[in-house]
Amino acid sequence: MPDAGRGFRKELAAAASLFHGLADPTRLAIVRRLSVGEARIVDLTEQFGLAQSTVSAHVACLRDCGLVGGRAEGRQMFYSLTRPELAELLAAAEALLAVTGDAVVLCPNYGSATTARTGTTGAAEDGR
Fold it and tell me: Is 111 in a helix, a strand, or coil?
């Protein structure tokens, strides 16, 4: 029976990795932006007011995870979501947030109130 606990962890590891990758606000903003159409790094940099290196690193992370792909056009690279399901996932998350109201934001472990109070999330503090 001790192995029963490990089974669900192994089974859900990929999903946990997906959500962990989307947990960063900058990456989530990039995914949200790309859900409406492709963009270049310079477009994302201007829209979010971030350094080019920051945006490039986040796009590279999303690309390494297979969530974002690039299309070269001349010397420019246009990025887009690789799967429409990711846009559907964002829409579902936004619908869920609309009905849960402040419950997620006020979560003592992962909510925005925790981040504002400590400068980090509860997960980072206790290794979750």
Answer: coil
Cα–Cα dist 111/81, whole Å: 27
Answer yes or no: are the C-beta atoms of 16 and 56 closer than 8 Å: no
Would you call 21 exposed, middle or buried from its count of C-beta atoms within 10 A (0-12, 13-18, 19+)? middle
1: its two tokens:
């029976």
CA distance to 4, 51, 61, per residue, from 58 (Å): 36, 11, 5
φ/ψ of residue 75, rounded to 5: -95, 5
Q: What is the DSSP letter of 69?
A: E
List alpha helices for 1-128, DSSP H: 4-22, 25-34, 41-48, 52-64, 84-100, 112-118, 122-126
Tokens encoding 118: 């400590």
Query: 19-57, pLDDT tens digit by residue?
Result: 998 999 999 999 999 999 999 999 999 999 999 999 999
DSSP state of 119: S
pTM: 0.77
